[in-house]
Amino acid sequence: MPEEPAGGDLSRLRQLNAVAVLRESRGTQPLTLTELSKRTGLSRASTEDVARDLLGRGWLAEVAPTPGTVGRPARRYRFNSGAGRLLGVDVGGHKILALVTDLDGEVLHQARVEVPAEAGRRERLAAVDRCITKALTAAGGEGGGASIWATGVATTGLVDGTGKVMLSDSLPEWSGVDLGRQVRRLVPGAVRVENDCKLAALAETWRGVARYAKDVVFLLAGLRTGAGLIIDGKLHRGFANWSGEIGALPAAGWQQAPTHLHDWLSKHPTTGPDGFERVFVAARAGDQGAQRAVEEYVKDLAVGASALVLTLDPQLVVIGGGFSRSADVMVEPLRRELERWCLRTPEIRVSAFADEGVALGAVRMALDEVETAITDGLRP
Amino acid sequence: MPEEPAGGDLSRLRQLNAVAVLRESRGTQPLTLTELSKRTGLSRASTEDVARDLLGRGWLAEVAPTPGTVGRPARRYRFNSGAGRLLGVDVGGHKILALVTDLDGEVLHQARVEVPAEAGRRERLAAVDRCITKALTAAGGEGGGASIWATGVATTGLVDGTGKVMLSDSLPEWSGVDLGRQVRRLVPGAVRVENDCKLAALAETWRGVARYAKDVVFLLAGLRTGAGLIIDGKLHRGFANWSGEIGALPAAGWQQAPTHLHDWLSKHPTTGPDGFERVFVAARAGDQGAQRAVEEYVKDLAVGASALVLTLDPQLVVIGGGFSRSADVMVEPLRRELERWCLRTPEIRVSAFADEGVALGAVRMALDEVETAITDGLRP
């Protein structure tokens, strides 16, 4: 670590010291000033100085001494994850899901609002409003929104830096929606909107099955097919935030993939929701036509997946989305297809989230906003 | 910048200070101790201390004062790029090219040895030896090798971390060659071997047309088709160094692409080397059959290229390899095809290197080795 700059910017130095103390204090164990000083490499005096400031802001909390300690115990401190709240919202095809968490990302409250797939722009935006309001009310009555430091919003489609949906194939009337502005009406703090596949990938490396991996291809297999990429431990967005869109290429097979499931369904009509699930159920029960349909679906899925794997050589492929619940009939055929095309087949894992992965990824993005704001020395 | 650690490791601190001074002293202008102190944030005393050590090692050089300076001029220092040499070797299909450079990567000597495409392992390895020996002799007679601090070697095929070629489709008997061991016999210092497409990509961001871009797809279009990826300013290798191999997927079109050129050539036989060049020459001269062959070639090339672009959303695609010399008949059709498939078409540029790009990338990799070694405080 370089020594103290001769004529450096002291307020900048204080900020960085504060970030160092905050980072170290986010562990599971509360720390004494001596321990904080040792871990950050700051002098005892600087550590005390910074801790006083952070206590004043409410970002650091003093922890009660362990009962029974002999003599006068040293004061111990930890990051005050209760100082603020984060909001993560998944604007999906069939549901809106909103999570309110503390600053460690622990979920405190959640709200869910069902919405029909064919809902237009106005109906879906009203559902977004309802769901967020429900979550905020649960989090603290009328004033629940005031404690939100930052918000992440996930949506299908391509999103620009301001929170506008540039292009959405799967939802009616959704291209052009200014989702950022819509949500900013309801909460204070930064609001950032991002594509749902990208956020699902982020959630897997944060709290999911990809925690140990630095290069990950997340594959959304469901009513839509999509991808999110983690490269060198970071979400890869691309130059204009249009990464992961290999499905737009007909040769990648993803446009054709669900037609095999559609074809089987049209030959076996019954009523009931979630049609695709029926194909997997029938395949599992031994229906040969359904098994063939799943096989053909997987074959097409594997072409684009192989293109991603051959391009990036990831450590891990994570399968998420609605069909990942049918992993038992899908993953082994997919592995065989990947082995057929790829020079090196990576590990394949199935997402362990029910359907909260995307919303958790939105929380993680909100947390990134807070951490950046702290590093930049701004009160979030 | 955090302050000096209370009980930190001082030798580690000195190393980091030395790296800071070296980094600042690599600019175009020599600097005084006062300027070095200001730029590194180190105290005057520490700067003097570090500079003395680096002068002793020969890594820093004192620059003669500007004539006509009034009074006693302050001493000025700069990085001594002449303290050592780097070697970059391109083991290609038709040639071996070796570059000897200074520590700034300026080419001082080069040697080239032609080798037939059908040459087997032994013949090609002998040519590698001959080429390196020629370059080292030019660099300093019999003892020319002694000044080499690090060596980068480029080869077709997939390479492991020790410098062994794991798989090569294009060169006979080349899979399994221990190229690292071969080259280590001839030079001291670290020897690192890497795939040629990856190193060509590296060269473009270092000294080529991609200097300004952080996300780049390099496309090798020639007798072989291949790709190298720069992501977030760094060469993307992948988990097992197998990235960029989308050409292995038949659906990507690259295996089929050259057959269109072959077909035209087989219908228009003449003698002469470099057959493929003839198709482009004929297309440029207005031969409609040749134009169609180039068109079909580009169409197939564009499928895999679009898959890369849709996956990564790069700022820039660089076209290199033998066919890039026929950019006038190839780039516009390629742009049209990319526009057809991609959601956002990135900039397309043609490599400005003749055929030294890959060897320059090997030099850059050798320079990385030296910089890592300096950071790690080891004498390279």
TrEMBL record, chains A, B:
Residues 26-61 form the HTH iclR-type domain. InterPro entries: ATPase_NBD, ROK, Tscrpt_reg_IclR_N, WH-like_DNA-bd_sf, WH_DNA-bd_sf. CDD domains: ASKHA_ATPase_ROK (cd23763). The keyword Protein transport does not apply. Signal peptide: none annotated. It comes from the Bacteria. One of its GO terms (molecular function) is kinase activity. Keywords: Kinase, Transferase. Belongs to the ROK (NagC/XylR) family. This is NBD/HSP70 family sugar kinase. It comes from Kribbella aluminosa.
